[in-house]
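Reviewer 2 asked us to include a model.

Predict the structure of this chain.
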Amino acid sequence: MRKRGVKTWTLRAVLTLFVLLVLGMVGIWLFLRGSLAQLDGRRAVPGLTAEVSIVRDAQGIPTISGTSRDDVAYATGFVHGQERFFQMDLLRRVGAGELAELFGARAVPVDKSHRLHRFRARANAALAAMTPAERRFLERYAAGVNDGLSALASKPFEYALVSAAPRPWTAADSLLVVWAMYFDLQGMLEPRELARGWLRDNTDAAQLAFLLPEATAWDAPIDADSVPAPLAPLPPAAPAWWGKPPADKPTRIAAADFVDSVGSNNWALAGSRSRHGAAIVADDMHLGIQLPNTWYRLALRFPAADGAMRRVVGVSLPGAPPVVVVGSNGKVAWGFTNSYGDYLDLVEVSTDASRPGQVQTPAGWETPARTEETILVKGEPAEKIEVRTTSFGPLRETGGKQYAIHWIAHSAQAINLNPMKFESADTLDAALSAAATVGIPAQNFVAGDDQGNIGWTIVGAMAGRAQPGIASTFPLSPDNAGAGWQAPLAPGAYPVLRNPAGGQLSTANSRQLNGAGAQVIGDGGFDIGARNRQVRDQLAALGTGADVAGVYGIAMDDRAVFIAPWRERALQVLDASAVEGKPQRAEFRRLLVESWSGRASIDSVGYRLARHFMWSLHEVLYGGANAEMATLDDKATAAMASSRWPAVVARLLDEQPAGWLPSAHRSWRDVQLAAVDAVIADLTKDGRQLSAATWGERNTATIVHPIGNAVPFLKRWLSAPADMLPGDANMPRVAGAKFGQSQRMTVSPGREEEGVFNMPGGQSGHPLSPFFLNGHQDWVAGKPTPFLPGAAKYTLVLAP
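Predicted model (structure tokens):
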């Protein structure tokens, strides 16, 4: 009897635990379901002037229609708040330096570096300076965000996992999201100047001119076939640091973990070369890729100035002012790429013991304004930092020196609501004129209209310099501060190019111009130019009568034009004597020959070996210098100082000067063989076979929701598939494990029904939503899908 009773109680306990487990799982499921967006129905909303409809297609792409632009802004906020609030929260926290409040001490270093700029205070000041109509627009968007958030049955699931409550959205938060993009798109300017300053301080003038060429044969400006630049004389001797390994760490292959995060391609074909006479505009913006995707697709419908309904289609940035960032308004289509101009100066300041509390700037002796900033840290006491700000910007100390950070992002013109002007631009000229007034991180603006016109300019805040030139790309001392920027560039001084003779335009983060406008933009870290050259040549090959499909196809070009010469160099050095008695070198050579498709294809071992060979040479020659630069800023490298370093190394391998031969090697042939051996050692670690080192193995997508990284056991449910991706940095099809084409768009204004689009994630940030990964596989495959939203499947009406 006693045994039977024990068994009964055991069975009851097991059943009870099972029931509790089931109830717990049901509770979790219901909680998660409660944070899904409302797709259908009708809601009463105080403050609307008339009904607004939110009509979604099967992919969750909404068309938001209203009779008032403010009402449409409210509805845009509603859908953003319901489907992307956590993403928006992270963006405003990046801009303000407030991530540690959610993620604890590990986020404090980022918060400290961002808090230096006091963008929350700047956002409040910018909001106060806006017109009442502009403030109302942002406030209506914020009201929509908060109402959308409140309408969820439970808070977004991410907040349960980080044990926090969502904080309401404010109008100033939308400005912080734009400043977050300044960090993303111009955050490399500081480490670049520090890297260039280190090189300047550790070389003589002739060596510096050789190491930092202003242009190479790869450059493909839009106003000329090339950039004629005489080669700098080759100095007789290299600097002392040249070719030395890092002193305190083993040599590594930079290619193994290097992320070439240079962003974006866009191009336009004039109506004279299109099949139908309208311009064709293509755009693929390159960003870090995670879930949800950076962009949120939508179509907005509202009355234009003449009373007719205007439809604007494209992508929005959740949290930012609710406008279409890139897209088409039926008359004009436009796209962006990061311009990489010179928009920041590091100005060295000095101190004097006889002037306590003061610093000497180019304007004279100043007493910096001191502000105490409090950083809230989850689970730990708050940290306080003191920010000291001069007339040239906040102060930063590194390498025993103090610098004022003079950044265009601090100016009053850095942020405004003028991107709204693109919604109503009816002609190319109207769009180009509007671009010069817009306050965003400065981008290359390529646009075309329904009459077939195409044009380029810079959109966003630019720095005006009295003495344009390369001096400002290095840290400035007080005696040469005249090379720095004095005020934002006036709109009338922006460089513009309309309807070039060839009927095409393209930009890809490289040098845009050969003419005088190049000095106006300056060089803030241009890409080497190989990508734009490939885009330009592919556009030219389309000839006349091109259509959207042909123009879109250029985004899929993964031909290894840039890496092919490095493969040839490796093959030349791996001759019979080099591989004799060296079976791994022989295998390296065999794979360069037999596993080479001429593309960055996923099954190619040859591509990976050739690319790693180039980067291995970088480590052999620049490794010691990179370690020294990292003491100034952990992002500072020789490659950041100049993307043109491969042209410098190629010239050395061609000319083989004895004075530049690293002391550890007997010949330039030995240098190259050492680079090959380092690649072999890196790729065969842990007994791996060299033949298994495909490009796809290296270039496998790791696209994850931030919570998936913070809570690893959830990663499988918060990640995209681990697809092997073709493509690489120096070709149109840019693809990396966590970086690449965040969207692809090709469209003719007025013919949007023929347009194509895809992006790496779906509309929703919720893993239970059918829109979470909707369209992802189309992006992986490069399948062109419709630009316009499809047939209505869900309808939500917001009524006053």
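Residues 360 and 433 are 40 Å apart (CA to CA). The first strand starts at residue 41 and ends at 44. We have added this to the supplementary material.
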